Structure formats: structure tokens, C-alpha cells
Amino acid sequence: MEGLKIIIIGAGIGGLTAGIALQQAGYQVQVYERVQELRPVGAGISLWSNGVKVLNCLGLGEAIANIGGRMNVMEYRTAQGELLNHIPLQPLIAQVGQRPYPVARRDLQEMLLTGYGGEIKLGHDCIGVEEDEGGVTAIFANGERDRGDLVVAADGIRSVLRPYVTGKPSALNYAGYVNWNGLVPVSPELAPADCWVIYVGQHQRASLMPVGGDRFYFFFDVPLPAGTPPEPEQYQEQLRGYFQGWAQPVQNLIERLDPQQVARPEIHDLSPLDSYVRGRVALLGDAAHTTCPDLGQGGCQAIEDAWVLTHYLKSTNLSVMDALERYNRERRERGNSIVRKARKRAEQIHGKDPEVTRQWYEQLGREAPQSVTNAIADVILGGPLH
Ligand code: FAD
């Protein structure tokens, strides 16, 4: 189809990637964003090869390689630091045809903003949509309206447009744990500069992953009841308590982090949706499939969504609704399967059934490295660009 006007709600990873892809396809794109100033939430993100392949196709291959960390090895260690598994990543890279890139979120956002280059109307809080025979109108809290051929709802985990698409309110599911994340300078007292290390024990994790600019993206996971207050001035003391007796690099990390720069989300996901599309409105990214971060795939799925949506709009010419339905069929299957898989993984890691987690710790010690990389490759190769 040609000559479409496309309205995108939300300028996160999903909305910006969709903006780039749809603009490159020749469409007129307008992005609206609720906040007055764009700031990424969270410190880092691992972009697995399925997401990177889409960025390559959008002409961002060099840019992502420039901001990405060189991660050559993955290591699992016990809480006390004993090596459980040393997993070279070259076989994975060879299998899937592309290196993954862990990145700082701020760098990723800047890269996507530069790649998009179009106007983003900030301070525009979308409160609803109205469809008519020939188009759809996005309605904003400030009284503005904009009519186009379709609306891409890339408005994130608490999507305002999701209930319009699904016909019912959606409840987020608390995954049972809290995640602290941030950035620290690379140092051998933390981990080797090309290594993604994950310490596991007591249903908790502490992890460091290299991103560009000689920094590690780090995170800590601790199962806690929902609603515990975030108090930056207490983060280090709390982490010292939760990770008491853990290996020296974990203690070093706690001492070196800057609590004022640490994000601390309680982790939620969303049960799989029956549909990502209604009429001329398509959910994209977390709006469609908020997933536990335990596979590192939420952002990658948003990027895949953007690619597939653009593909169907470009390659078919029956109607907008028909193209969106094709998008729906393909992405619903992929997105929902990632949500289920990530939830299962989150439960395994964080002790929903302590016996399952104990078995996982045991398995980590005897699993062939190739079987770990095969499992990651399966997820990657399930994407639209094999
Ligand atoms: P968002 O990034 O949430 O963007 C939505 C945008 O819409 C926001 O800018 C918001 O302000 C705007 N908005 C919301 N409502 C409105 C409205 N009504 N009107 C206008 N604008 C609106 N993914 C990975 O691929 N790899 C990882 O390693 C990874 N790690 C993660 C670690 C953690 C701790 C967490 C929490 C998530 C992780 N993810 C990871 C997931 C990833 O962060 C998300 O999947 C991704 O950010 C989703 O992008 P999005 O564009 O759909 O939503």
C-alpha cells in the first residue's frame, strides 16, 4: 500500500523503530509522546541478534555496533563465586549470523532518535481513538486530535489503547521479584571486560554485562513482596544484606554503584492477549506483550513487531485492516510464546517452586555450553529474519 498516514503513540524502543521503518517505507509518520522530555527508563538492555538483524536492515548496523558491548563469553557462578559454566558465545554468533549487542539505554535511544529524525510531538497524552469508515483519529488530553489511516499503539506496559483493542481492561501480573539496574565503569575487580557473568543463589541473581563506552550494565534480582518502597539512599545497605556472603566482585559492585542512578522496577508481565489488532489500531511492543525480562527479549520483540508491521503494509494492497490482521496473526504467535517462555524462566530463576530452582542450579553446573547457546539460538531464530 502506498500513501498512508500513520500515527504512532509512544516514542520508546517500539515506537521509534516503527517510526524509522515506516518512514523508510515512504509513509507519512507522526509520533506522539506523553512526556515532555524523553528519558530512557532503566540503564541497559541486551539486544539479541534477532533485534540487531532488524536494525541492520534499517541501516543502523554500524550505529548499533558502535554503541554495543563486545560480549564473547557468558559465565554462570554460584553465590560464592565458584564457576558453574563457562559458555563461549562464538558458536551462538556463528549459528544465528549476528553478534548480540548489550547497550546502554540512553545510547540506544539516541541512536533511534537520530535514525528517526522526524518530529515527535512531546507532551501529547493519548486518551483514546475513534474509528470511522475511512480512517482513525487519535485523541489527546490537551484537546488535540489527529486523523490518519492507522494508529500504532506503542504506548508501553500500561498502554491506554490496549483496552480499546482487546475490549477489556488488562491486569498486569507481578512476577514476584524486584530488579535493581545501573551502569558502572569496567574493572577487572568486577568481571573480565568481554564477559557476561551471572551469579545465582537463594533465588536471587547478580549480573554484569559489558556495554559500549567501557561500562558494565549490572542488575540484581531479589524476590520480594509487591509494593516495597524504592529508597535510593538505602539501596546499597539493602543489597549488602540480600547479597551478604556473596563473592567479592558482587561486594565490589555494591560499593561502586551510584544509587541515585539506579533504576528499581518491580517486574511485571501481561498474560498473552487474544488479539494485537482492532480495525485500524495495532498494538506494538510492550503494549501488546509485556514480558518478564528473563529472556532479554521484550525490546527485541518490539523491534521485530515494527519490522513485520511495515512488511505487511508495504507488501500487500487489499486494505489497512487486512495488513494489520496479517501482522496480528504473525506477531501474536511469536509475542505470546515469548511471554509464556519468559514467565516460565522467571519462575525457574526466582524460586516460585524452590525444587525447580534447585534443579536449575544443578543443571547449570553440568549443562554442555552448546546446549545453553542452542536454547538462546532457538529464541533468536524464531524471529522474522532467520
Ligand atoms: P516503552 O519503552 O515503555 O515506551 C512506551 C512509550 O510510550 C513511553 O515513552 C511512554 O511515555 C509513552 N506513552 C505511554 N502512554 C502514552 C500515552 N497515553 N500517550 C502518549 N505516549 C504514551 N528487553 C530486551 O530486549 N532485552 C533486555 O535485556 C531487556 N531487559 C529488561 C530489563 C528490565 C529490568 C526491564 C523492566 C525490561 C527489559 N527489557 C528488555 C524489556 C524492554 O525494556 C521493553 O520491552 C521495551 O522497552 C518496550 O518498548 P516499548 O516501546 O514497547 O515501550
From TrEMBL:
Coiled coil: none annotated. Residues 5-341 form the FAD-binding domain. It comes from Spirulina subsalsa FACHB-351. It comes from the Bacteria. Its cofactor is FAD. It is an enzyme of class 1 (oxidoreductase). Keywords: FAD, Flavoprotein, Monooxygenase, Oxidoreductase, Purine metabolism. The gene is hpxO. The keyword Flavoprotein applies. It catalyses: urate + NADH + O2 + H(+) = 5-hydroxyisourate + NAD(+) + H2O. Its EC number is 1.14.13.113. It holds the Pfam family FAD_binding_3. Belongs to the FAD-dependent urate hydroxylase family. Pathway: Purine metabolism; urate degradation. This is FAD-dependent urate hydroxylase. PANTHER family: GERANYLGERANYL DIPHOSPHATE REDUCTASE (PTHR13789:SF318), MONOOXYGENASE (PTHR13789).
